[in-house]
TrEMBL record:
<feature type="transmembrane region" description="Helical">
    <location>
        <begin position="188"/>
        <end position="207"/>
    </location>
</feature>
<dbReference type="GO" id="GO:0022857">
    <property type="term" value="F:transmembrane transporter activity"/>
</dbReference>
<protein>
    <recommendedName>
        <fullName>Xylose transport system permease protein XylH</fullName>
    </recommendedName>
</protein>
<keyword id="KW-1133">Transmembrane helix</keyword>
<feature type="region of interest" description="Disordered">
    <location>
        <begin position="411"/>
        <end position="451"/>
    </location>
</feature>
<keyword id="KW-0813">Transport</keyword>
<dbReference type="Pfam" id="PF02653">
    <property type="entry name" value="BPD_transp_2"/>
</dbReference>
<feature type="transmembrane region" description="Helical">
    <location>
        <begin position="130"/>
        <end position="149"/>
    </location>
</feature>
<feature type="transmembrane region" description="Helical">
    <location>
        <begin position="64"/>
        <end position="93"/>
    </location>
</feature>
<keyword id="KW-0812">Transmembrane</keyword>
<keyword id="KW-1003">Cell membrane</keyword>
<dbReference type="GO" id="GO:0005886">
    <property type="term" value="C:plasma membrane"/>
</dbReference>
<comment type="function">
    <text>Part of the binding-protein-dependent transport system for D-xylose. Probably responsible for the translocation of the substrate across the membrane.</text>
</comment>
<keyword id="KW-0762">Sugar transport</keyword>
<keyword id="KW-0472">Membrane</keyword>
<feature type="transmembrane region" description="Helical">
    <location>
        <begin position="105"/>
        <end position="124"/>
    </location>
</feature>
<feature type="transmembrane region" description="Helical">
    <location>
        <begin position="249"/>
        <end position="268"/>
    </location>
</feature>
Amino acid sequence: MSTTTQQKRSGGLRELGKMFGGGQSSGRQVGILGALVVIVVIFQIATGGLTLDPTNLINLVNQNAYVLILAIGMVMVIIAGHIDLSVGSVAAFTGIIVATSMNSWNLPWPLAILLGLVIGALIGAWQGWWVAYVGVPAFIVTLAGMLIFRGGNQFIGNSATVPVPDAFTIIGGGFLPDFGPDIGYSNPTLLLGLAVAVVIVIQEIRVRRTQTRMGSEKAPLWVSIVKIVILLGIVVYATLLFAGGRIGTSFPVSGIILGVLVLVYSFVTRNTTFGRHIYAVGGNWHAAELSGVKTKRINFFVMMNMSVLASLAGMIAVARSVASGPGDGVGWELDAIAAVFIGGAAVSGGIGTIVGSIVGGLVIAVLNNGLQLLGVGVDRVQIIKGLVLLLAVGIDVYSKRQGRPTLRGLLRRNRKNPSPGDQNAVPIERPSVAPTGSAEETSRSQSTTPN
């Protein structure tokens, strides 16, 4: 087989591997998507069809939208080589202020939402300043923030529950308003599914046209067809499920907010200079600085963005529960971090995707939901979630230490036992990089130390 033929064949498989993860996709990210499908199928059988029941799916989105929103911001923080332990407390702190502003100050709910986002930005700027310009490691800064804003939540709310008006609850427990004739399905959900399907087709056509115009290598036509068929099948099936819920329900508003954020942040991280700089800082902060990347500014905005999303997640959770209380946000940071690592992010930074983190969050959500449907106790649910996280990260670390190829790399091999004379079968020599100092010397927090 010629080198050109092999490159064409592997290029098609490579494009299939990128389908759900872009240029940062890895075998583990594709594998976790398959694991999600397997988990759904297992629970669908074990629960007698309750897992994919329309009502259960709608509740699944409403119950986990805030965690998935947190995962979007957390993956950017982890890609940059940091961690944020304060997101749950920031969400609770913002939630109690927003609830109090509407309940006691009679602030209209749209202005209350704006107030919450401003508070999140201020908190993020405060923590980002300590991380980026003072040089305190993000772990310490956000650990302090977790304590500060948890105490602030209890101080402002007097450790009591503060209700919110009904109009505010739409962002956390509302649905698309129904209209049109009664056909047995939610009309707005059907239209939303149709719009998503059209966008998928148009986007694939635009990508191929752009590749042709620029003269760059593009995947074979069959790859695009398979990609479109798979995605359209998923969209159609999901649309019918969400549109077939009980009367008065449709696709949740919180799910639409989540979908918009996924699209926006996926574009930012994959197609903008700012997004590429986040990966550069997390991959090798010193090389990024030498290349002219303003690492302090990147770290500052990554931390601030996380707090803004935490505030939004907190408001959505308060809207769903119709009140803000002292128990809000407890353990949220752990769920968000787990979603990111299960979704394929690297512990050392520099690797991860928005879509991968969403898939990781869905794995946790489906596990929680399925085990609850089976009547498994909360104690055992926590044990299972911990084992899943440990296994996911452990496999990744072990594979890297052994120098094993990813699933995509295995698919690209045209033979299992190549002949010694086959020049295409020569293994790639991987350089061995040894650490030059202690763990503290090689930590990502050094990238934030002022010069």
